[in-house]
Amino acid sequence: MKLQRMNRRALALGALAVSGALALSACGSDDTGGSNGDETSNTQAAGNIECGDAKGQLQASGSSAQKNAIDAWVKQYTAACKNVQINYRPDGSGAGITAFTQGQTAFAGSDSALKPEEVEASKKICSGGQGIDLPMVGGPIAVGFNVPGVDTLVLDAATLAKIFDSKITNWNDKAIAALNPDAKLPDLKIQAFHRSDESGTTDNFTKYLKAAAPKDWKYEPGKSWEAEGGQSAQGSSGLAQQVKQVSGAISYFELSYAKDGIKTVDIKTEAAEPVKATIENATAAIGAAKVVGTGKDLALELDYTPSADGAYPIVLVTYEIVCDKGNKADTLPATKSFLNYIASEEGQGLLEQAGYAPMPDEIITKVRETISGLS
User: Which is an annotated Pfam family here (predicted)?
Assistant: First the structure.
């Protein structure tokens, strides 16, 4: 009898895993590689999603850094709310904000908060309101590298600035050697890759370089790459692919893209030891962020030069940008339902296994309150 119960349980778990896999493939998303236990907990989380009157298609676009988080959320949400289809295009923060302010999408994802002129533009499509920033996803911007024979690499802000400004061009440069006395650095040309599209990841990466190495990074931070030289690729996935394929490559992208054997740089800060790009170390830095948005806007100010031990300095926060008032009547129920889910304890709970950092409690509580008042 005990064996029969065990067999029945195994069959039930197998059926659950299969049905979960079918639901995921139906969404056209990447496989997260979860175990049966993960599928079980994810299904339970999906059971807590409140669909309400949500129905129809939600068009959204923007940050490619959060794509893997969006994929994980959409898998769970659409499994519970079968009358909703969510189409998210990860075409970059700049393109996402443009699409939103032109009324083409219900919400946008951006790794940078709205600029004043973008807020002004949003008032044309947010009837009686404006676009607001809702911080939803956090994480480290990893610096991935492909240097044959080198498994561990330490760099500081000044050296990174010189590499990405084509001032340091070879991997055996004395500045890199000084930071890595035990590494066997090859006589190999550095292949530095940056984003070709407007990107909040670029904005945050260059904000770090400007804040931590102002003498070596003369360019103003922004979504568009300003430095001369280097090579470019589209999206975070494009940069990660180049690092994986090109010997001597180095680039920047959200940690969730540092997979399939891609190694990441440890960053030397004022702390005693170089800091690894991990979720925990990014959370330590994001926890010190301050809300600087006014009214219902929850834009954050990040500290790119933390000195605390274990605080990773190159972090980003991705915002979901939505109208506080004047959302389209046909998409408002689905927009609120989906945003409520991703801001919930269950939604935020998926982030770490997807390679991201959840928002600190005091911030996500304000996000939930703001979502409830969207109209």
Answer: PBP_like_2
Instruction: Say yes or no: 62 and 149 in one domain.
Output: no
pLDDT (tens digit per residue) in 268-282: 999 999 999 999 999
Q: Do 125 and 152 sit in the same domain of this protein?
A: no
Residues whose CB is less than 8 angstroms from the CB of residue 60 and which lie 6 or more positions away in sequence, other chains included? 86, 87, 88, 89, 96, 105, 106, 107, 108, 109
For 149, the token pair is 């024979």
Among 255, 286, 317, the domain-final residue is: 286
Output the pLDDT for position 288: 85
Its domain, for residue 76, covers 11-136+325-372
End-to-end CA distance of the chain: 56
277, β-bridge pairs? none
Q: What is the CATH number of the domain that holds 78?
A: 3.40.190.10
C-alpha separations of 15 from 150, 158, 222, 248 in Å: 44, 54, 48, 46
In 3-state terms, what secondary structure has residue 60? strand
Q: What is the pLDDT of residues 130-163, one digit of tens each?
A: 999 999 999 999 999 999 999 999 999 999 999 9
Answer for the pair 141, 258: CB distance below 8 angstroms, yes or no. no
Whether residue 157 is found in the same domain as residue 281: yes
Q: Give Cα 271 distance to the centre of its chain.
A: 25
Domain count for the chain, please give it.
Answer: 2
Amino acid at 288: A
Instruction: Kindly state whether residue 2 falls inside one of the protein's structural domains.
Output: no
Rg of the chain taking only CA atoms, in angstroms: 21
All residues at 6 or more sequence positions from 161 whose CB lies less than 8 Å from its CB, including other chains: 167, 209, 213, 216, 217
319 pairs with which residues across the strands?
A: 110, 135
Pure H helices in the chain: 2-26, 36-46, 67-80, 93-101, 116-122, 157-164, 174-179, 200-212, 235-245, 279-286, 332-343, 345-349, 361-372
- Write down the pLDDT at residue 287: 85
E strand or H helix at 263: strand 263-264
Give the count of alpha carbons within 13 A of 51, CB side only.
Answer: 17
Residue 109 · residue 86 · CB < 8 Å: no
Q: pLDDT per residue over 74-95, tens digit each?
A: 999 999 999 999 999 999 999 9
Is 309 contained in some domain? no
